[in-house]
Structures are given as structure tokens and as C-alpha cells.
Automatic annotation (TrEMBL):
GO terms for cellular component: nucleus; plasma membrane. Its cofactor is Mg(2+). It catalyses: GTP + H2O = GDP + phosphate + H(+). The keyword Repeat does not apply. The lineage of its organism: Eukaryota, Metazoa, Chordata, Craniata, Vertebrata. PANTHER family: PTHR47978. It comes from Gallus gallus (Chicken). Keywords: Acetylation, Cell membrane, Cell projection, Cytoplasm, Cytoskeleton, GTP-binding, Hydrolase, Lipoprotein, Magnesium, Membrane, Metal-binding, Methylation, Nucleotide-binding, Nucleus, Phosphoprotein, Prenylation. This is Ras-related protein Rab-28.
Length: 222
């Protein structure tokens, strides 16, 4: 292989699947990242929405992120395992003001483990606390979040899809960690530049979600 061929290495492509309850803000998070927009009115995702965005990581590495925004009702559906299959990264998203959205992540993660248990390459799993612009209404304590991360070796993130706070950084850190790239503060700030954004949306047929009995709330427990 010539030097020129080595320099023109193909772009990397990563599949990231966003999971969590219907009101956790998954679509707002994906749209803020891919389109730099925020919809003020809640619109339920039925089945799946799909976004593409290209970013640059240190070393001038072009990475295309496929963001699969999975509808909250699909946890009881037959398509969920197909959505998860082949993902290099899983984002477990919850609303920091909604205890139940945090507690239900255990169900989502159980599905992830079931789908990926025989995979040679295990996906990176990130725990994402959304709506930090509503810190004054927080019901999920930070130490609860951190404990869940430590117990399961999750990557830890806090974002606000509404204000955009740390959203790009969240996806950037996840992509870099999957590819084994270490980011320093200067590189994080520099790589905020957007190279290219391609957005594709499509919906699958709606599926019925199995309703789980509510768990006793543990969010307030130290």
C-alpha cells in the first residue's frame, strides 16, 4: 500500500442507539446533536427515527455517527433487538426530574445485555442524564447516577437537549472512547466545529409496549 493510500483511509462509521422512556428527551437529544434544533412541543417517536452526522476527532479522523432514536414504547416490541444489534454504542437516557425514567433503564439495559451477550465486541454503554437545565427540579441524585455507572462500567454524561449544554461533547466523548481516542480539553473545544450533517428520518410500524408494574422509588435513597 502506498503512502497516499494510507493517508486516504476511509471514514469511520459508528452506530449509536438511543434508548429510554418516552419522555426522557431522546429525540430532542438526537435532534440537538444532528440538527442543532430543539422542538418545544413533545412528539412521540413511533418505532424509530434515524439521524446521520459527521464529526472530526483528533488526528483529523472523520467519523460518521448513525444515531438510532428508538421510541420509548418499543421495549415490548419484536424489533428492539434488531435496532440494538450491531451497535458500537448504547445511550441509556433518562430525565433527571423523573425517577421512573431512571429506574426503567434497568429494563432497557437487560434487553441490551440479552441482545449482545454473544457478541464478540461489546458496545460501549453510556448513561445520559438529560434536562440539566431543570437542576432545581432534580429527583435523581447524582450519586445514584454515578453508582449505576460504576456497577455496570457505563460512561457517564449529563446534558440538556433544550439548551444544548454538553450535547455535542457527549456524542464526541462516546465516539472517541469507542475508537480508543483520548481527548484533552483543548481538543474537545476545537472539535466542536461541524463538518457535515445529513439527516434522514423514517418511522417503523408502531408496536405495543408491555407495561411493567411500577417499582418502589429508590431515587431519594442515599
Amino acid at each position: 500500500m502506498s503512502d497516499s493510500e494510507e493517508e486516504e483511509s476511509p471514514d469511520r462509521q459508528l452506530k449509536l442507539v438511543v434508548l429510554g422512556d418516552g419522555t426522557a428527551g431522546k429525540t430532542s437529544l438526537a435532534m440537538r446533536f444532528a440538527q442543532e434544533t430543539f422542538g418545544k412541543q413533545y412528539k412521540q417517536t413511533i418505532g424509530l427515527d434515524f439521524y446521520l452526522k459527521r464529526i472530526i476527532l483528533p488526528g483529523n479522523l472523520n467519523v460518521t455517527l448513525q444515531v438510532w432514536d428508538v421510541g420509548g414504547q418499543t421495549i415490548g416490541g419484536k424489533m428492539l433487538d434488531k435496532y440494538i444489534y450491531g451497535a458500537q454504542g448504547i445511550l441509556l437516557v433518562y430525565d433527571i426530574t423523573n425517577c421512573q425514567s431512571f429506574e426503567n433503564l434497568e429494563d432497557w439495559y437487560n434487553v441490551v445485555k440479552k441482545v449482545t451477550e454473544e457478541s464478540e465486541m461489546q458496545p460501549l454503554v453510556a448513561l445520559v442524564g438529560n434536562k440539566i437545565d431543570l437542576e432545581h427540579m432534580r429527583t435523581v441524585k447524582v450519586d445514584k447516577h454515578q453508582r449505576f455507572c460504576q456497577e455496570n462500567n457505563f460512561s457517564s454524561h449529563f446534558v440538556s437537549a433544550k439548551t444544548g449544554d454538553s450535547v455535542f461533547l457527549c456524542f464526541q466523548r462516546i465516539a472517541a472512547e469507542i475508537l480508543g481516542i483520548k481527548l484533552n480539553k483543548a481538543e474537545m473545544e476545537q472539535s466542536q466545529r461541524v463538518v457535515k450533517a445529513d439527516i434522514v428520518n423514517y418511522s417503523q410500524e408502531p408496536v405495543t409496549r408491555s407495561v411493567n408494574p411500577p417499582r418502589s422509588s429508590m431515587c431519594a435513597v442515599q
